[in-house]
Design goal:
Number of strands: 13
CATH class: Mainly Beta
CATH topology: Lipocalin
Number of domains: 1
Largest sheet: 8 strands, antiparallel, barrel
Radius of gyration: 17 Å
Strand content: 35-45%
Distance between the termini: 29 Å
Helix content: 10-25%
Strand order of the largest sheet: 1-5-6-7-8-11-12-13
């Protein structure tokens, strides 16, 4: 699979906007673009990836990323669909991270996802298997284990059944039955995707 990068040629305006949002969120200077501007930049990035049929490798997602910006969704009864919420920057006092690691079988697109939230003395981490479909930039996942600690003391650390399937059966499940992220821009600095529910999210790599 040949990987293409939206930033490989002349840098589009939406890439500059997302880069500015990431830098400002880190406290590296500059003014944060408004939520509306960020949402528009994300939609432009998504459109460009579809039009240019860009592909990103699973390896480019590996590592830990902090959630910077996200949109909600609203159901539209008359249209039978959804519309995006306004979107917002995640408050800095809430640290939300997503991480991806690869399985030993190189190039399989299999691995593990981690999603952790830290707020004051509360720490919550969910982990589970992933399957990446490079041709669609689609990452299916399921959370099968939860760890919860309070004031540094582990109070819960075991398998959970909130997920759709057990870990060992995960890779035999149809993608349509699993939660997923459809990534549409992946750089060394930030990544962005649309979730199965229709919302958009922007994660940044912290330096």
């Amino acid at each position: 699979m040949q990987q293409t990068d939206l930033t490989s040629t002349a840098t589009p305006d939406f890439v500059n906007i997302l880069s500015q949002a990431a830098a400002a969120y880190r406290g590296q200077g500059g003014v944060r673009p408004t939520a509306e501007v960020v949402v528009n930049a994300l939609l432009q990035a998504e459109k460009a990836t579809k039009q240019q049929r860009l592909n990103y490798s699973f390896e480019s997602l590996l590592g830990e990323w902090r959630l910077c910006f996200a949109t909600g969704t609203k159901k539209v009864r008359q249209r039978g669909g959804i519309i995006l919420g306004k979107g917002l920057y995640v408050p800095k006092l809430v640290a939300i991270y997503i991480s991806f690691s690869a399985a030993l079988e190189e190039g399989s697109g299999k691995g593990e996802i981690g999603n952790q939230v830290k707020l004051g003395s509360v720490f919550l981490k969910l982990t589970g298997p992933v399957q990446y479909l490079g041709k669609k930039n689609l990452l299916a996942f399921d959370f099968t284990h939860m760890l919860l600690s309070l004031f540094g003391r582990v109070v819960y650390n075991r398998q959970i059944r909130s997920g759709k399937v057990q870990s060992e059966d995960f890779y035999n499940q149809p993608i349509a039955k699993l939660p997923f992220f459809a990534f549409f821009i992946v750089t060394e600095d930030f990544i962005a995707a649309r979730g199965r529910g229709g919302g958009l999210a922007l994660w940044i790599r912290e330096t």
